[in-house]
Write a structure and sequence with these properties.
This is Nuclease. InterPro entries: SNase_OB-fold_sf, Staphylococal_nuclease_OB-fold. Strand 5 and strand 6 form a beta hairpin. This protein is α+β, with helices and mostly antiparallel strands. About 22% of the residues have low confidence. Helix content is 43%, strand content 16%. Among the domains are: 68 residues, no CATH class; 128 residues, OB fold (Dihydrolipoamide Acetyltransferase, E2P) (Beta Barrel).
């Protein structure tokens, strides 16, 4: 009887608390990095001033031991298990000149305000792709623009934006230009302007009417060009703004025939309302999918308990 009750308790607790204790938040420590769970490699994503005090990996290792709370990975830490993620530390170690590995790492590091030739690895969606730069692969978020989603959640004009971007990138001759105050966003993605030949890809996407909002991390070099391209797309009714323009013209003509002033909706507000409705639907579906397994498991446990006590009689 005790074993049965214990098993029942495990089933119920698993249903109610599904994997919370194994969640990996991925939070950064005071140095701007964290240990990768799979192999305890330390990834320095966004170096803080504390991290930049280190002159080399050996000095950084001492700081990691001091500031990181993952005691298990700290015990396994070696210099080979520190990945600078393309960043350059505050100085160069005395052995850098004689170490081919360190020299390669220094030459492949990225800096703000620079242009780098890039090779397309994978086109993900309208504003994200993976590129090979200086021998390293970077998931790259296109600076400043936000296109409709087309991966996990498919939004209106998401597929069109993805096809447009991927078709342009497939032409090759790609250059990434870093800008702003940081190389990476909070999701560890490289932030860059993307050039295909002599064309600024973000500007081309905006002109096609496939930019719904701005993904703004600060003041950027080509902001005005993108805003102007987006305004032109709205005026021309390009892409996602074509349907909105048709609706406005139809409403305008109907209202004029009735002798009333038209109440013209904002394309921006329409897009935001669509996005809010989709997010609400997704949340309701997620909540429903989360609650149903709990209910079924509880019903199953009750049935098992009923037959168990029935067989005891």
């Amino acid at each position: 009887m005790k074993k049965f009750v214990s098993a029942l308790a495990i089933i119920v607790s698993t249903a109610i608390f599904p994997g919370n204790s194994f969640a990996h938040p991925g939070a950064l420590d005071k140095l701007g990095g964290h240990f990768r769970k799979s192999d305890c490699t330390y990834l320095l994503h966004e170096p803080t001033p504390i991290a930049m005090q280190a002159k080399d990996k050996a000095a950084l290792a001492q700081l990691i031991k001091k500031y990181n709370s993952n005691s298990e990975c700290v015990r396994q830490l070696t210099l080979d298990k520190i990945d600078l993620q393309g960043h350059t530390l505050g100085g160069t170690s005395s052995s850098a000149a004689s170490s081919p590995k360190q020299s390669t790492n220094q030459s492949s590091s990225l800096q703000l305000g620079q242009k780098y030739p890039a090779k397309l690895v994978t086109c993900i969606d309208g504003d994200t792709a993976r590129f090979m730069v200086n021998g390293r692969e970077y998931t790259t978020r296109f600076l400043f623009i936000d296109t409709p989603e087309s991966t996990i959640q498919v939004e209106p004009y998401g597929k069109e934006a993805s096809r447009f971007t991927c078709s342009r990138l497939s032409r090759g001759d790609i250059t990434l230009e870093t800008d702003g105050s940081t190389l990476f966003d909070k999701y560890r993605r490289l932030l860059a302007w993307v050039w295909v030949g002599d064309k600024l890809l973000q500007e081309e996407i905006a002109k096609a009417g496939l930019v719904e909002d701005f993904y703004d991390y600060g003041d950027y070099k080509y902001e005005d060009r993108i805003r102007k391209a987006m305004d032109e797309a709205k005026q021309a009714g390009a892409g996602m703004y074509g349907a909105s323009s048709s609706k406005m013209n139809s409403a305008d003509q109907q209202t004029k025939s009735e002798g009333q002033k038209p109440d013209i909706p904002s394309p921006d507000n329409e897009q935001k309302n669509q996005q809010a409705d989709q997010e609400t639907t997704a949340k309701e579906t997620s909540d429903s999918n989360t609650e149903r397994p709990v209910f079924y498991l509880l019903v199953f446990a009750f049935i098992v308990a009923f037959f168990y006590f029935l067989s005891r009689k």
